Amino acid sequence: MNRKRYSGYLIGAFIVLIGLYIIVAYNSLVQKEERMEQMWSEVQSTYQRRLDLTPNLVNVVKGVSDFEQTTLTQVAQARANALKIKGGQMTGENYNRQSSAQDTLAAASNRLIVVIEKYPQLKGTSAYRGLQTQLEGNERRIKVARNDFNAAVADYNMTARGFPKNLVAKAFGFEVKEGFQADTGASKNVEIKF
Questions:
Q1: What is the pTM of this model?
Q2: How far apart (Å, rounded) are the C-alpha atoms in residues 37 and 39?
């Protein structure tokens, strides 16, 4: 009789321990997923800042009357395309589409900056210099935000794929996520450079 009771206590304790482990593992996965989503929001915020600064760059340049309009049009079109592809769910497809649109905007802005080199009177204005500083700082922010997001994705994926937490992850629908990746043959994404 005592042996049955002792066995019952052991089985009960084992079930309680498994239940506690599942709770801890679940909460850990939720915490890492929330961190990942927070980092995704940071990426979105830095992209939005780039989108907000681009019209200022175009407006400063418009002050030069003989400036090449095609370059300004390309920047405006790239910005419009990047605005269309904002946010969304954290999926590899969304990252790649948004990254591509942002890289196109950065490349168009770089072409604009190269053309600005021909206009020393524009380069010397305080509005352009201030904008240059803001854009350079934002490019660093984008790089840091992408790196932080990828680190959060890697941390989450290690937890979701590691045994035995992967059993809890599968049971509750936590799927492995994808972060930013460089295009094939590309070492990094396009940045606005002065």
A1: 0.79
A2: 5
- The answer to whether 192 touches 136, Cβ cutoff 8 Å, is yes
Let me know if residue 24 belongs to a domain.
yes
**What CATH number did the domain enclosing 128 receive?**
1.20.1440.20
The CA distance from 194 to 192, in Å, is 7
Q: Is the Cβ–Cβ distance between 194 and 132 less than 8 Å? A: yes
Reported as a single tens digit per residue, the pLDDT across 37-73 is 999 999 999 999 999 988 888 887 776 545 667 788 8
Are the beta carbons of 113 and 192 closer than 8 angstroms? Answer: yes
Range of the domain at 12: 2-171
Nearest-angstrom CA–CA distance, 102 and 64: 26
- What secondary structure letter does DSSP report for 81? H
